[in-house]
Design brief:
Layout: H1 6-17, E1 22-25, H2 29-36, H3 47-56, E2 60-63, H4 66-70, E3 75-78, H5 94-106, E4 111-115, H6 123-134, E5 140-144, H7 154-159, E6 164-168, H8 177-186, H9 188-192, E7 197-201, H10 202-233, H11 237-245, H12 266-279, H13 285-308, E8 317-321, H14 337-346, E9 350-354, H15 359-362, E10 371-372, H16 376-380, E11 385-388, H17 393-396, H18 400-406, E12 411-414, H19 421-426, E13 430-432
Parallel strand pairs: 1-2, 3-4, 4-5, 6-7, 8-9, 8-11, 9-10, 11-12, 12-13
Antiparallel strand pairs: 5-6
InterPro entries: 6-PGluconate_DH-like_C_sf, NAD(P)-bd_dom_sf, UDP-Glc/GDP-Man, UDP-Glc/GDP-Man_DH_C, UDP-Glc/GDP-Man_DH_C_sf, UDP-Glc/GDP-Man_DH_dimer, UDP-Glc/GDP-Man_DH_N, UDPglc_DH_bac
Pfam families: UDPG_MGDP_dh, UDPG_MGDP_dh_C, UDPG_MGDP_dh_N
Family: Belongs to the UDP-glucose/GDP-mannose dehydrogenase family.
Length: 437
Amino acid sequence: MIGGGYVGLVSGACFAEFGTDVAIVETDPVRLAALREGRIPIYEPGLDKLVADNVAAGRLTFGDDIEQAVQAAEAIFIAVGTPSRRGDGHADLRYVYAAAEQIAKSMKNYAVVVTKSTVPVGTGRQVAELIRRVRPELDFDVASNPEFLREGNAIGDFMRPDRVVIGTDTTKPGGTQRAMEVMRQLYRPLYLIEAPVLFTSLETAELVKYAANSFLAMKVTFINEIADLCERVGAEVHDVARGIGLDNRIGRKFLHPGPGFGGSCFPKDTLALTRIAQDAGSPMRLIETTIDINDRRKIHMAERVIAANGGSVANTTIGVLGLTFKHQTDDMREASSIPILRRLAEEGAHLRAFDPAGMQSARSVLPKTLQYCEDALDAATGADILLVLTEWNEFRALSPARLRKLMKGDVIVDLRNIWEPMAMRELGFRYQSVGRP
């Protein structure tokens, strides 16, 4: 497994749990040292124990030597980052190609080289061409095996997936039965629980990941716009979501209104898909609009906070509950908190925040004037406004009556709908949520 980041570490640990010997290659010395010492550099529930158990069992190892790691490997996964490229939004594939070149130089025997990273259509073939150029004599196959891991539930998603998608080079003379058999053996435990395993072409598998994330991002954006309409007409967005989600053609998931999507996948993958489509001469207008609406929404959420306080937050203390893009993660990438809190700081607000997992990650991307608190009650103490940005369960458990005593003001802007509006207003709060009367 080339890459010990989120995808590589979770996937490697889960393959090891299946009984496969896995060597994770990580070239970042700080991250590698942490992994070798048993410290997990990312926050993901259950991952620390899964890693520790499989290291103890001898099935999972960490190192920085690709040549040593791939010697006896039947499958070599590329799980490096593919961030948005500066300036044009395309996926940056420099790390993928660098890994492929190192793999080519290090391989001795037949193996399947698998892209686990999210990569544009055509990348698998480019990887194959690169390997052939470096080592024309090598016997190998390429495959695409996109990940569908939700942060906060990644282990469950890997162990009990909705589906596994595996793309191989269906144009290869003689076929790719050997590669398909290697991949079947890797995922054999999932066949036993009858998880769907879909074999496709390389291009199809690569496009599936972008299409899936973009559709879900569009679904999130749709319910956010419905929430805005609910506020104007007096409807209840959660009831609307239930009403449409019970239709099996739509489904209940990803119909939770909020301040806009973020994280490591949706923003990056929607943007990359629009660039892929533009280059192919088949623009994705729905996805382009989804991106625009989502970006505007985050700024609008800051304006809502300002409006809730009478049109100004200058010299106002705002207690902030949650910073990460969602609960059960420390990921701050494209989090709604970033543009919202920057805007509030620009307007002269004093910001005091607490997040159970993300405060260390937040320091490099949020305003330097933001004060980090010991817990949620500390963030609420003396606040003129309380702003909920992430739906951590411990925030739901807070006593509203206690908040009322601790806060200086009475304004709550709940962008995750964690409390009931009527109950909050009965306590004297000027309470606003998303899509509810």
